[in-house]
Design a protein that fits this description.
Layout (H helix, E strand, L loop, with lengths): L6 E9 L6 H10 L3 E10 L10 E3 L2 H13 L7 E4 L5 H17 L4 E4 L4 E2 L2 E2 L5 H9 L5 E2 L3 H8 L6 H12 L5 E7 L6 E8 L2 E8 L8 H15 L4 H26 L18 H5 L8 E2 L3
Helix pairs in contact: 1-7, 3-4, 5-6, 7-8
Length: 298
């Protein structure tokens, strides 16, 4: 059953309060014109940056039942598939099986994989997840959006400079991934991080101004926006990167300013730094590009 609107199946975490996982991805995708079906791998009260977290993890049988229901009703036709945080190697293996089935139904399906494993040198998933991502899931991806640490984990290579980053990207392309996007790297200076996107011989980098706060859900938002804009721009990777970063920057800046107004000094508590997606609906629909991507020669 094909449809006139692009259709995404997003399998990610869910929080009752705040914006991570599907809560960070579904709303922007819908605003940008996508039909979104979402399966929540966990249902938590809030993200794990808070002092207390309560909730449940979706059992593999329940995931299988949901997918079976979609298939039995012939409503499992998707143009895009998006995955983020996974809690265990077994649930990730199950997702690899789901991708294969969805690609049988629609061979043109685009799989966007955000291989959520860690950041700043720390893994926050079981280490057994790494080989499943590396060997089973990532080779199925069309678009991959790791941060620097995740890209280094997957390839076993480190990037100290742009040349190192390009080698890591090349190693990921060799796994069969058409588009590789390093959502953030520490290759910039004290004021900026660098994002890099590469596809079919074209490679661009963009400077991302740093903010004096830690946000949760930005990676999930990045992957969703990149999926949407790559579709809307017909895979114009430069424009996709610019639109994605423009949206992210506007939302992060607004979130930061409102949080600082309430909490002028010191570390901002998690409840004040939840991404302000709803208030920035117009920005998501129509971001203003202020930072341009620059071509990088391989």
């Amino acid at each position: 059953m094909a449809s006139d609107s692009p259709r995404v199946l997003s399998i990610q975490s869910h929080v009752v309060h705040g914006y991570v996982g599907n809560k960070s991805a579904v709303f922007p995708l819908q605003i940008l014109g996508f039909e979104v079906d979402s399966i929540d791998t966990v249902q938590f009260s809030n993200h794990t940056g808070y002092k207390n977290v309560k909730g449940t993890v979706l059992a593999q049988k329940d995931m299988a039942d949901l997918m079976e229901g979609l298939a039995l009703n012939d409503i499992d036709y998707y143009t895009h598939f998006l995955t983020g945080y996974s809690t265990s190697p077994d649930s990730l293996k199950q997702i690899a099986g789901i991708i294969k089935k969805l690609k049988e139904k629609n061979p043109k399906l685009i799989y966007v994989c955000d291989p959520v494993m860690g950041d700043n040198g720390q893994m926050y998933v079981p280490k057994e997840i790494l080989p499943v991502y590396r060997d089973e899931v990532i080779p199925l991806a069309d678009i991959l959006t790791p941060n620097q640490y995740e890209a280094e984990l997957i390839t076993g290579m480190s990037m100290k400079d742009m040349e190192g980053a390009l080698k890591v990207i090349q190693a990921l392309h060799q796994k069969g991934i058409k588009t590789v996007v390093l959502s953030s790297t520490e290759l910039g200076d004290g004021q900026n991080m660098i994002g890099i996107a590469s596809t079919k011989g074209a490679c661009y980098k963009i400077e991302i101004p740093k903010m004096d706060a830690t946000y949760v859900g930005t990676g999930d938002l990045f992957a969703a926006l990149f999926l949407a804009w790559s579709h809307k721009t017909n895979n114009d990777i430069k424009l996709t990167l610019e639109k994605t970063i423009a949206t992210m920057q506007a939302i992060v800046k607004d979130t930061y300013q409102k949080a600082r107004a309430k909490h002028p000094t010191g570390k901002i508590p998690p409840a004040l730094i939840e991404l302000r997606l709803i208030q920035n609906k117009n920005i998501i629909e129509n971001p203003t590009i202020e930072i341009h991507a620059v071509e990088v020669k391989h």
